[in-house]
Backbone:
């Protein structure tokens, strides 16, 4: 057993309000410079939708991630031989139109325009060419527009949905969507590292953060192809590839990454996870239906004495082990089983997990019986408020999950490689916590009823309260458990190199850290 530590994250999608504060915080610190205008290391997408860059999830277009073969796994669109063949012409790279041509407005025209009958306007101009352009796309172009034909209906995750489910989602009066924030997953089996011909991309031993050495990078851009999440970008000005660095200078100083610190909805959690590195290859090459379970099994119990002993023998400090024991990510992912990886079928073993959204129920008009509904309401009114849901069975309660606005199949395509039961189990737990908390705060659900709901999901009242507290009441130190920095392990990242006199300490030619 080769025990290693990994900084990991959980995003709670029920709490995301789509404000993009995280994206702007990241943009202002790291990518507010020439050549990085189109880079959004953190972006928030509307789902259903095609995302950023367009259809990044469709690997028949981009050939990202790994595929299973007889020998284990192999890169889809990169690798030694394929990379050599495509090194000067890579047909699987996204082009600027898949992102958007970055633009600004010629505001000076508003001031210097001569007197005229019409109001002067600030024309949009390209930040790349400096010439006027017609704006066709942007990083959040489909915000709140998941019902439009151009976006949701072209979402690759719609595969497998019935026509009835599709139509129910796209009726205007029943429009349904949720927000999906994304950053680099800092995977355990990163395709970007395996694809780089220069060996510029590496995974830090002390915390698992994936970084690109700017001095070694030769801009072959195989990492852009290989990353199935399209979180590696090419800087056209410096001729280097760049990606999210998880704000490692902030983490080393005990601060949360900028996107997480600024999150208005407090949806983000960060902590340490311990994992068995000996199992990475075996897990990544297992059958698709077993990927999620195998990945979760690879994550180790930080309270297990044998795990602690192996971790210490591997050089993991006591402070990191302690941080793993108090990690909110460990609670959501392992202890409570409420967070799932994004697109596990890409086989990169991502270490960013999501709590799926528990959306309201949406009945179909043709199935609603108003007379029966009135009778139920009359019966509830008779017993109100002591016996709310008195006439509804637990099966009926779970049945509402099947009628959610976003079909289970869609969420399963996102978070569990198509396994609807895994998503349904998480949604049941979310529902059970709500039922329990309604018993506590409103008191219109009997103890027997609430306990029955909890027992069916494997929870008890104390666990439900713990989930509620970490979800709704957690303070900063509860959401971000950051291990103490051991400078002797990280000092190399900040060393000034004499050959690169323009170095800023972070490897970029131009400083991205003005606001750090």
Residues:
């Amino acid at each position: 057993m080769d025990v290693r530590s990994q900084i990991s994250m959980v995003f709670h999608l029920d709490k995301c309000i789509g404000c993009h504060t995280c994206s702007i915080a990241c943009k202002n610190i790291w990518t507010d410079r020439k050549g990085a205008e189109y880079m959004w290391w953190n972006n928030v997408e509307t789902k259903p939708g095609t995302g950023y860059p367009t259809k990044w999830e469709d690997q028949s277009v981009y050939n990202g991630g790994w595929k299973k073969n007889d020998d284990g796994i192999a890169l889809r669109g990169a690798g030694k031989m394929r990379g050599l063949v495509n090194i000067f012409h890579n047909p699987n790279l996204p082009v600027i139109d898949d992102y958007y041509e970055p633009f600004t407005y010629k505001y000076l025209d508003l001031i210097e325009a001569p007197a005229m009958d019409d109001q002067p306007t600030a024309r949009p101009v390209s930040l790349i060419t400096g010439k006027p352009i017609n704006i066709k796309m942007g990083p959040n172009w489909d915000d709140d527009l998941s019902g439009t034909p151009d976006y949701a209906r072209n979402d690759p995750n719609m595969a497998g949905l019935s026509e009835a489910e599709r139509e129910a989602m796209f009726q205007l009066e029943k429009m349904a969507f949720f927000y999906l924030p994304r950053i680099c997953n800092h995977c355990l089996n990163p395709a970007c590292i395996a694809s780089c011909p220069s060996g510029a991309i590496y995974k830090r031993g002390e915390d698992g953060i994936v970084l690109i050495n700017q001095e070694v990078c030769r801009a072959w851009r195989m990492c852009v192809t290989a990353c199935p999440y399209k979180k590696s970008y090419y800087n056209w000005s410096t001729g280097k590839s760049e990606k999210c660095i998880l704000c490692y200078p902030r983490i080393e100083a005990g601060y949360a990454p900028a996107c997480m610190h600024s999150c208005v909805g407090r949806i983000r959690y960060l902590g340490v996870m311990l994992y068995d590195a000996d199992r990475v290859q075996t897990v990544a090459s297992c059958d698709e239906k077993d990927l999620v379970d195998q990945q979760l099994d690879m994550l180790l119990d930080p309270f297990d004495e044998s795990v602690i002993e192996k971790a210490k023998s591997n050089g993991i400090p006591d402070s990191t082990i302690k941080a793993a024991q108090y990690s909110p990510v460990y609670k959501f992912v392992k202890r409570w089983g409420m967070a799932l990886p994004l697109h596990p079928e890409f086989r990169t073993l991502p270490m960013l997990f999501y709590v799926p959204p528990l959306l309201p129920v949406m009945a179909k008009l043709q199935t609603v019986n108003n007379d029966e509904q009135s009778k139920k309401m009359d019966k509830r009114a008779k017993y109100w408020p002591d016996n709310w849901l008195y006439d509804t069975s637990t099966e009926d309660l779970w049945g509402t999950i099947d009628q959610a606005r976003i079909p289970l199949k869609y969420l399963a395509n996102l978070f569990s490689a198509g396994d609807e039961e895994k998503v349904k189990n998480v949604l049941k737990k979310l529902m059970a916590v709500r039922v329990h908390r309604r018993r506590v705060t409103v008191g219109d659900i009997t103890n027997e009823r609430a306990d029955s709901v909890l027992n069916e999901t494997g929870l008890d009242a104390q666990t439900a309260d713990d989930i509620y507290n970490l979800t709704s009441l957690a303070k900063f130190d509860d959401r971000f458990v950051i291990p103490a920095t051991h400078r002797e392990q990280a000092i190399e990242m900040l060393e000034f190199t004499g050959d690169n006199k323009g170095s800023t300490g972070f490897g970029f030619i131009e400083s991205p850290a003005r606001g750090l």
